Structures are given as structure tokens and as C-alpha cells.
Amino acid sequence: MPGRNLGRSNTPSGGLSPRLLVAVTACWYLAQMGYYAQAQLFGPVMERYSLDEAAVGLIMSQEVAMYAITALLMAGPVTRFPRSSIAFAGCALVLAGNLIAGFTENFEVLRVARLATGFGAGMIGAAGVASAASSNNPQRMFAVVSVTWGLMAAGGAIIFPYVTVPFGAKGGYLLMAATVVLLLPLFRWLPPPQRNLQEEAASQALLASLPPLKRFAEKLGVRDAPNKEFALVALLALFIYEVGQGAVQVFLEQFGLRAGLEEYRIGEVLGIAGFLGLSGGVLAAWLADRYGNLRPALIGIATNVIVAAALALGQSPIAFAVLYLAWNMCFYFVVPYILGIMAEMDPKGRWAVATDAVWWLGAAPGPAIGGFLVAEAGYGGLAMLPVVVGVISICLFYFTLRRFYATQQ
């Protein structure tokens, strides 16, 4: 198959294959494209179907939930089947879902189309992550792809208003369909999985012998991971925290409109400040673990949720731009420390891998909850959500991790 020449032996040890880098970047962008477009589609979808925030938030939550669940379910298939084939199949669903969403005037048809899009996006994302994880230097691959994906996402946010302002939601969905067609050929460079048939047979036999709950834990790779009593509470804290982040994310364009900005300027802010926000991760890399993982994580979460509340309440263009940049920086500052905490609980990284799944599962209910709060209590109600869930998650993290560190000592 076309991707076979991208195996480990064709790239110098520690180096990155340019073709694989391009293919993984395309996977990440197409997989997450629908989620990050929701903020700029929220208003156009409300206008097109004459619905309130609660109804639109619910359909967007369903799409993200489908993405997260599919990515989990694909953890096994991406180790057995050609990743390029999985990505191509996912692209077919994303393309069809966006085309249907672009042309339908029926909201229930739109709901089905977005569920299909979320399913396809989960397939694409799983294929991309698995390909990056099996590269010569996974850490470097993920770091570089974070930047290349960030550049593409910034460009996408800037371009989006140029189709949604004149053409509404239809323009946004058709732009995403066109993007799929443009990037789809790059997936032929995804490498095949390194298969071990004996290990696969043993793994399938083990799964068949386990009860449902343990089978799910085995698929996540955490059935035998240590420190479950601490890790599960930490993952719950992360889930709760991410609900607030998902709610704020989907209303970003609405915040900008309330601040007096037009859609084109909002797109520029979302693109440029969103990319600059990645510098929060650079700051975390510079600080490293000189202050441990817990203290920086808690400070980052506290700052993030306060800024999120201010972002929801702000009505100044300058405040919107500055607060959005600060919100992004705080989030990307927190990410490596959360992963560091989970890695401390299991040096093999199994809890850290599960963290990525929980991140998306936590973001999924955010749009629905945020939409309900705005419909019932306005933006003041939405502003309270990240603060409340932030306080709960900080308390859970603090008391759980204090106990964990005490047991380690």
C-alpha cells in the first residue's frame, strides 16, 4: 500500500518523515475541524433553523460526544487494519455529513448528519494519533504536529467568516466539505500498523474472558494500571473542569459579537490569539517540574476559569482579544502538568493516554449545558459555569493528589 514506505527503517533514528508529518497534521486538522468550527457556526445555525441556544448546543454536544466515543472504539482497529483505509472511510463520512448539513433545511436531518460527521472525525483522529505514536520519535512528532495543526487551525478561523457571513451555516459546512476533498489524498502516506498476530489473538482471547467493565478498562489500557483510587478521581476532576471549557469554547464568536466586533475581526482574533495561546505550553516546558506538577496545574486551572468568566461577561473588543489569548495560554499551560500528574501515577503512561479520552468526553456536554444556561439565565449564568466546575475540580485534584503524594513518601 502507499503508506508502506513510511516505516521506521526509512527515516533516520529520531528523525521525522516529512510525509508522515503532513499526513498526521491533516488527520488532526480534519478530525478536530468540526469541533473548533462550532463557535463560528453557532449563530448561523441558530439563525438558519430559528432555534435557541439550548437546541443548538445540544446538537453540537452530540457531535463531540460521538467523536470522543468513536476515537475510543477505534483504539483496537487502528492496530489491526490499515490506518489509511480507516482515515479514508472517516473522510467519506465527514464529507457526506458536511454536504448534507450544508443543503438540508430539516434540523433533525442536520442532527443525523453531524452525528455521522463526529463518527468519521473520530476514525480520522484515531488513525492520526496511532500513526504519530508509532513513529520514530513520538514525542517530537506530537510537538511538531501541535504547531503545524495550530497554524492550520488559525488560518481556518480567519477564513471561516468569509463563507458564513455571506452564505450562513451552509457556507461553513460546504467549506469543511471542500477541505476534506483537499486534504484527503494526504492520507495515503499514513503507515500500516506493526502487527503481531500472536499477541492479537491472545489479546482477543483475554477480552472475551473479561466482564464488560473490565473489558472496557482493558481497551483503554488501564485495567492493570496502578493507583486506580487516585487516578480515577483525578480523571473525574479533569472531566468536570473540561465541561466548563467546552461551554465557553462554543460561544466564543457570540462573546465577540457582544463586544462589538464583526465576524471578520472575530475570526482574526480567534485565529491569531488561538495560535499565540500555544505559548502557554512553551512556558510550561520552560518551567518544567521545578515547582512540581500539582501547584502549577492548580494555579493554571484557577486562572483559566477566572479568565473564562470574564470572557463571558466582557463587552469590550480589546478585553475580548486579551481575555481570549489569556484563556488559551492558561489552558495550554495546564495540559502538560495534568499529563505529568497522570504519568506520575503510572510510569508506563497508561493513565496519561486515558486522559486524552476524558478530555474530549468532558468537552462533549459543554455546548449543551452552556446553551441551556444562556437560554435560561443569559451570559451571567454561563460565566458561573467555568468557575463552579473549576472550584470542584481544584478541590478534587488537591485532596486526591495530596493523599497520593503522601502514599508515595
From TrEMBL:
Its main location: membrane. It comes from the Bacteria. One of its GO terms (molecular function) is transmembrane transporter activity. It is found in: Cell membrane. The chain crosses the membrane at residues 55-74, 86-103, 115-134, 141-165, 171-190, 230-252, 264-287, 294-312, 318-339, 381-401. The keyword Transmembrane applies. The keyword Nucleus does not apply. PROSITE patterns: MFS (PS50850). Keywords: Cell membrane, Membrane, Transmembrane, Transmembrane helix. Residues 20-405 form the Major facilitator superfamily (MFS) profile domain. One of its GO terms (cellular component) is plasma membrane. SUPFAM superfamilies: MFS general substrate transporter. InterPro entries: MFS, MFS_dom, MFS_Efflux_Transporters, MFS_trans_sf. Pfam families: MFS_1 (PF07690). It is a multi-pass membrane protein. Gene3D superfamilies: MFS general substrate transporter like domains. This is MFS transporter. It comes from Halioglobus japonicus.
